[in-house]
Fold this protein.
Amino acid sequence: MASTKDIHLTLRTQLVTASGIPDSQHRARENRDYTPNDFETYIEEEFVPGPRAVRTLVPGGLSETMGLYVVKVFAAANNGINTIRTLADAILDVFSPGSTLALSGGGSVRIRTDPAPFCGQILPTGDGWSVCTVTIPWRVDTSLP
Amino acid sequence: MTFSGQLRVFTDKVTVTTQAVFVNSASRVLQSIQDGSPVTGAPGQPVDTGNLRASWQLTFESPTSALVSTNVEYAPVIEDNIKGVRFKNHGPHSVKITRAGLQQIVDYELAQSRGGNG
């Protein structure tokens, strides 16, 4: 079975290929404290695995795992839509619906088509920031032993 | 029974089953968002005052259309954990996870209608 660590790292690796992605000092990673700098644009990731389902009940049959990779784009509030929307769109561009990303341990993670990746409304956080949430639904199919 | 009679019985059965799967799926969507679900993996709405959890409503707009909604203004903030809080219970992303797992809900209810274990 593909490990959740492998899936997470693969998605993270793909994320940082997005055009205009902030540098590592402006990327908040899962389970690591992060302090934003003076309202400089940054992103925050969340890896949300979902339940597994066995689809075919035979040896070597199919086991399906689905989940979400959630990336929040934070920028200074009251500064228009350009910065946030440009970065959110760039992230969506590297997670095309139906595309596959090879896992280091074998197999691949597929970016789902229904629902496909999407981004939400720009919301003020109330403390000087605005945020847009990009959601990337993914799926991994593996063979049962 | 004639063949046409058997077809009518079969048609009626399909109609009843389809309606039951639809209604039960819609109810399970609401439950997944509100309380969480082992079918979708949704964590359910975090509870402090209970206002957000109780606000979610299921409305059948037509025999083939159901709407699950909330009118709570801060629902998106909780859904995406915009403020990065640590919830005392349940968690964020229940709507997204439920939407992503919609097919699992329908598959589960279909299996249930056949007397299966889902």
